[in-house]
Every structure is written in structure tokens, then in C-alpha cells.
Amino acid sequence: MAATIKCGGDRDTSESTMSVKKVLCSAAPLTLRIVAECPVTKARACDLTLPHCTVSTPVFMPVGTQGTLKGITADQLDSLGCQICLGNTYHLGMRPGPDLIEKANGLHGFMNWKRNLLTDSGGFQMVSLVELSEVTEEGVKFKSPYNGKEILLSPEESISIQNSLGSDIMMQLDDVVSSTVKGPRVEEAMHRSIRWLDRCIAANKNPDKQNLFAIIQGGLDAELRQACLNEMTQRDVPGFAIGGLSGGEEKDDFWRMVTLSTEHLPREKPRYLMGVGYAVDLVVCVALGCDMFDCVFPTRTARFGSALVPWGSLQVKQKQYAKDFQPIDPDCQCPTCRRHSRAYLHALFKSDTAAMHHITIHNISYQLTLMRSVRQSIVEGRLPEFIRTFMKRMFPSQDQYPSWAVDALASVNVTLD
Ligand SMILES: [Zn+2]
Prior knowledge:
Largest sheet: 8 strands, parallel
Radius of gyration: 21 Å
Number of strands: 17
Oligomer: single chain
Helix content: 40-55%
Bound molecules: zinc ion
Distance between the termini: 30 Å
Strand order of the largest sheet: 5-15-14-13-12-11-7-6
Strand content: 15-25%
Number of helices: 17
Mean pLDDT: 90
Low-confidence stretches: 1-26
Structural class: alpha/beta
């Protein structure tokens, strides 16, 4: 069943296109080996080989900001077994800037991280963080929050910054529209994202060292998303992301757009679902056929004292933990749970930011361990049972199962009991 596929599905057989594809394919620094496919759902377990190491998928990728994750060092992330994390192009591009990072041998050298890095295009942050942004065909215009200067982030500029950062996976600049927006703006953004993809492909100076992923857009409109899938999958990019979701839309719309996307993405390329990090969403979307995920949620929620556990979350600040000498999760093998009690973390939270740091480590470990268990169950052909056990533990009774998850799982032949 295992198959090694170098990038490039052949859909177009015209000779000129084929020869261009061959050049791109032999150069793309990515291979995807499908280790196992679930016989019931659309899930798969793969070995994704990138320039810095092989990533076992399905994988959760923790999100960094200024070159490191808030509350955790590169060393600690490495010792948790993290094989790929995210760098934030918008923040790094603004400060300290791409020139300085290039001098430090890219973001790997700058943050002393030996595993893989994925960088975003910078566009999403701009649209969501900077109020004064304007999207034109040229790119995204905005005022620097640091010095007020007007800056244009074009597809070419985004790729130039990401080339300086030296990430293993770069994301195309896309025209981001909130998933709750409807109407002609969604269609415009989808078509523009396709044009910007072509400009990003042309601008990539390191196609032999850095993989450029396309981002499927189209909002919650099945026809638009299908049109975007048709167009983008004709481009020979090494991987695809499903974008424009996880922005507050109805979960029912969310999973239907995810499943439509995985249905039409090529089997031989990695599929990255952007902005998804809740445990239930991860497990369901693996079953729908996604390989890679990222989200700020586990690290952000840690800073508010919320620890992720198989039965949901545990609020360390709550009084009931003041005299509780158990670890956060007695079954967790992370450095925090091996050393510290709930009572200690509860007390520490009142006086010291170190408590956030300990919980951040636990939460990242929780996400990575969850994905390893999911992968193991795919490899051993027991994903449906894994999902049933996982849901039972997460929700005290069956009537608390979210209906969207029940429907999504039923669509891939998993009925919950
Ligand atoms: Zn732990």
C-alpha cells in the first residue's frame, strides 16, 4: 500500500506543460510517502519529507511569533518531538526584518531551530491586525504599526521575505476575506488568490529549497470553492492549504467545505487545514482527509491558565486545585506533568509567569501526543474505534456530542455510540 510520490500529478498531457512540470518536480524539496490509508474514513498517515527532517502526519504545527513560541524555547519544542512549527512572516518581516534574519542564516539560524519551519504569507495578520489595510490587485497596502509608513505587501514581496526567512514551506499571499462575508467580494478574492498564486510561483527564488503551498479559497460557497480547486490543482505546487475557514462560520458549513476540498485535492500531495486546533476539530478533520494543522489556540489558552486534557480543559486558577497534588493529567508524560502538581501550578499562577510557561509546554505536548495517537490508530487500522473512545472521554454523555461532528463523522462512515 505504501507509495512514494515525488510532487506532481499529471493531469495535463500537452508536451510543453509536461516538460515544465518535470523541471519543477525534480526540484521540489518535498516527498510524501503514504504509509497507511484508513479503510473506513478518508484519513491517511504519511511521511512528509522536508529539507530539515521527515514529518509524521497527521501533524499539529505549533505557532511561533517573534521567531519563538511564546513561553517556550526552541530546545524545549525540540525535546517534545515537534518536527515542524510556524514562523510569523508579518511580525518577523516588520521586526527585526528580513535582512537581519538572512544574515543569521535564515529563521532556522536566527532561532536555532533544526527542524522544519512553515511561514505564512503575512497577509492574514495584516488584514486581521492592522485596521488601515486596503487590498488592490497589486497587493495589500497598510500602515506600519511601528513607524506609520505605508507598506505594500505584494505577492512578490511576501515571497521575497519568505525566501529570506528560508522556511521549508512558504504560503502564497492570498486575498483573505472573513468566512462570514458573503456576496461578490468572496468571488473577487477567490479569483485574485489564483492570480496571486501564479505571481508567487514566478517570484520564488528557491524552488529547489523551499516549497510553496497554494491556498484554496472560495468562502462557504461550494461552487466558488470547487472553481478554485479546479484552477489551483492545475498548478504544480508541492502542497495545498484549505484557507478561509475557522473564522467564526457555522461548523456545519466548515466541515462541508473541508470535505469538498479533500475530495478534490490530489492524493499524492499534502493537505494543510489552516487555523484548526481544537482537539475535536483535529480528530474529525483527520477523518475527512487533512494532514496538517496549525492554531494559536493551545498556546494562547495556556496563558490564561487553561490546560488541555482528554476530558476537555482544566482551569488551573480555580480554587478546587489549590490543594490538589495530582499532575494536570496523570496519564501525561510531559515535563510539566512529571514534575509539578495542580496545587503548585495554581499557587505559581498568582505570582509568576513561569506557570504559563509550564502550561504551554503541557498543551503543546497534549496536541503532539494526540496527533501521534491518531496516526498510530490509522497505521493499525483502528481509527473509527479511536474516534469513538476519544469522543466518549471528551463528552460526559452522548447528547453533548456536537451535531456537526456527528454528521461529519457519519459522512465518512463512522457512527458514534
Ligand atoms: Zn502534561
